[in-house]
Amino acid sequence: MSKQPLYKKIYQELKKDILTGVYLEETQVPTELELSEKYDVSRITSKRALMELETEGLIYRVRGKGSFVKKRQETMQQEKKNTLLFVMPFAQNEGLGNYAEGILASLNTSDYRLHMQSHDWLQSEDALYLSSDYAGVIYYPINMQESIDFLYQCHMQNIPVVLLDKQIEKIHYPCVVADNESGGSLASKELISKGYDEVIFVSGTGLTESSSVRDRYMGYLSAVYEASLTPQHIVKTPLQTMDQLFESVYDVICHNKKESVGLVCENDIVAIRLMTYLKQQGMDIGDKIGIIGFDNIQATQLVDPPLTTIAQDFYRMGEVAGELLLKQLNEEPVDSLVNVIPVSIIPRQST
């Protein structure tokens, strides 16, 4: 049996205290610092617990003052009609919490509350009754087939939708994306400026499967051509495992006549796993081999060496997504279907 996350334990205990009247309506609940000291956890963990309570509509936050118990809606139906759905890739992901924070910030002055579900929820019967449960949806696509099916269902039920992180061709919903092309270019130029003789793009996802990976590759191409280098893309085939992809990268490096090689990876997860694999083969990362990821997840600071990465502004992306959804709900015009949020590079010791 998997161990219950600490934030979930804190969330459940606070929820019980709210529902049983230990904390009355409009009274303050413990702060992030108080919870972290009481349960001996990090403030990130206590913050996640409070955010879960906020998304469920049990508390609200006042900047500079703390969190307070919210008055309950008069009827469940009214509550459902005031609920927005955020469908995210995984049930637990620290980076995705910043998306949710941004969305919640955009809803502060509205009557709407946010409910979060992972993609697994789409397989449940509850997902068939979207229009009766939710006023609108913020959707993070993963699988193309599943995404098209779900979004068509939203279309048939006249539910406003905003896409997060990826565009889907022929689907005319507003979307909020990072400036992936600029990120691909920044990553490649960082390696080029450090003197790496060859720069290779590595991905576990094909260019036709993900608009974000495709845009990162386009940025990579612009940088290597500008530097008069020869582009090379090592991508996982459908029959390959990730370890086999990493073996292919290792073979290319070993047979490469260049003195040093830089690797631009589609995201931090691929970069960290590749770095681990190459270190196991005795390669020195940060000297002759440079690696850059994309996303700036928490683990990038903890690996050895710390990973250079492209940071997305998840908070701002969530905030803009929330603003776009509110515009649709209020029947206001949406200025642009594609909303691009700037990225930045965070240099560390892997390059």
Automatic annotation (TrEMBL):
Domain (HTH gntR-type): residue spans on this chain: 4-72
Family annotation (SMART domains): HTH_GNTR (SM00345)
InterPro entries in alphabetical order: LacI/GalR-like_sensor, Peripla_BP_I, Tscrpt_reg_HTH_GntR, WH-like_DNA-bd_sf, WH_DNA-bd_sf
Keyword Translocase attached: no
SUPFAM superfamilies for this protein: Periplasmic binding protein-like I (SSF53822), Winged helix' DNA-binding domain (SSF46785)
One MF annotation (Gene Ontology) recorded for this entry: DNA-binding transcription factor activity
Keywords per UniProt: DNA-binding, Transcription, Transcription regulation
Protein name (Swiss-Prot/TrEMBL): HTH gntR-type domain-containing protein
Organism expressing this protein natively: Vagococcus bubulae
